[in-house]
């Protein structure tokens, strides 16, 4: 992984490194396309095979049959494309967690504006305790927040800011018991390649992933799993030739599976790259095995921060996954957002990369399978030295 | 261009070959991203610079300021994303030419369904004569077809089936004189890299291009030019962090320029690849110079078909651009669509690639700057031999 050769890297939640074999697979795909095509009967079966192979490989990752998977350019498109096809009515209410990514929130605001719907907030950002109490509180608050008007719940699987894992299957079960049953949109930007996803993805109506973060694929390719209920009751949204059951016939109707949400030409070599990255991850063990490795390092980091006189992790318990957010002990969550940013710059100058967040104002370091114990030590040392200077 | 090394290629209107320098630029971009980032303060200025450089380079191609350009994954997204943000009302009418791509037609049908709008057809596919009479007839028919309910006209710049160029600036002028003034959506899939686009792109409300056809960039990146009127009156549609004026603030509002239609993470290396392909094209001369070269070969092909006892071009005059569609002399436009397809297969087996179309049922060969006179001769020979066998 060339990205890891010259730096100490903790931004897997921003973008993962692209392994050399994946980059080579991308280059090979481009060569094959040029050699066979690029537009020819010789290349079409290769393209179809590459896309189908990736869809089939992803199905067990997401615990759904391939027909429920659509490829998208990124996680935002995966969230919003199916969402815009649902049967909204005026005065429906969208219940959005307070830990969602601004892009998804803004898209929901626009949707609400268009259909004259209301927005409500589900607080989860303040939940910093152990998994059992977090789960209980999320379900309790959800129960309280749901009204007969609630038609959508938006909740990330792994919160991008605090690093907490949300109990998606249990949330889905709670929603299933309601009439009318609200749709469940899960932003899985941080889960694909970091958490076991099968139960959550199967339970959600929209479970949108990107391949360029924890799964270490190329940027520009994501996948969304949609429910059979969504396929039955939703409409297609953006439409292009890839949405159509017969691409040359405008009147042929859209695919009866999730491909109706695929639009038109994508960058095929990226499919080969992501496929290779998935194979590399699979070679490291099951999703559970890999999460255990991720947590070894995130726990090391959490404990180091916990022991530091100058820093403190947001979470009161070791993280459930690889996201570790933290602040200065003297500062609070209300600290000016410029401060975390200047620390990112200072550490970056020393070749150590993490990121700052604005809400809550904090720093965030991610550990992955490839993170070494010595790198975590180095980060802790740098942080403690910086704090002394500051 | 490795794609052209082992075959005789006439599918530039399907997908262009990727020049080796462009592929190398893509690979260099990936290396740079890995070396600097992939997610770090070190890489962000590089990403921003790459995107800005491409936007600025594209502006004169499209005759508009950079603020009117948005990058999209493909031409369909470029057509539909801005379209879905326009202020539609029940009983508005969408007037769609009968030579549009099925993907765009299907998207307009869905839009019409959602808003309770009507669809009408503008016949242009039968126009096979010279540019002056084509222009006059298009404007005459448009005049007839427009009603006070017409709120959108959809017309390609270069028709993908017959190869005729549509008089977009004149169409725009006619629409401008109407109250209410209909929006003009131009599918420019076949024009970017083949025709001078500046006057047409500036005149249209939505002028959507893809980089992977005539401009010989990588697949998965397109650009759309939108009008100032659209920016003023339209709403954003799919939204992601790239749409937002401050990406970390859901409430910050969308960009006041066309970037509001950009959604989220795209494949940055593709921007470097398209930039390189544009530079290679620019080195061949102005848009007019390049079109003249394209037409040298398309006229050669048209004349060869015209002289052939067995084939006839659709157009009665030499083509205005590089698309040459033709049928067998014995067969008619109503010929079974399987026949052109079997000819594509037979020629493909000899390493000569063109494509078939279903409506009208015909074959289509494209000539580009790089097409050699000997290749056109070879195609004509193969076609005449095939016809003898058939």
Overview of this structure, please?
Chain A is an alpha/beta fold and 390 residues long. Helix content of chain A is 41%, strand content 14%. Chain A has 12 helices and 13 strands. In chain A, the strands form 3 sheets. A 7-stranded mixed beta sheet of chain A has the order 2-8-7-6-5-3-4, with helices on both faces. In chain A, strands 9-10-13-12 form a 4-stranded antiparallel beta sheet. Chain A has a two-stranded parallel ribbon with strand order 1-11. In chain A, helix 6 links the parallel strand 5 and strand 6. The longest helix of chain A is centred in the C-terminal third of the chain and has 21 residues. About 2% of the residues of chain A have low confidence.
What is the helix fraction of residues of chain A, given as a range?
A: 40-55%
The profile of the biggest β sheet of chain A is: 7 strands, mixed
Overall residue-averaged pLDDT value of chain A: 95
Topology of chain A as a string of helices (H) and strands (E): EHHEHEHEHEHEHEEHHHEEHEEEH
Indicate the multimeric state.
homodimer
Number of DSSP E strands of chain A: 13
Approximate shape of chain A:
globular
Low-pLDDT residue spans of chain A? 332-338
Which class best fits the helix and strand makeup of chain A?
alpha/beta
> What radius of gyration of chain A results from the CA coordinates?
21 Å
Looking across the biggest beta sheet of chain A, what order are the strands in? 2-8-7-6-5-3-4
Strand content of chain A: 5-15%
Biggest interface found: A-B, 82 and 82 residues
Count of DSSP helices of chain A? 12
Distance between the termini of chain A: 33 Å
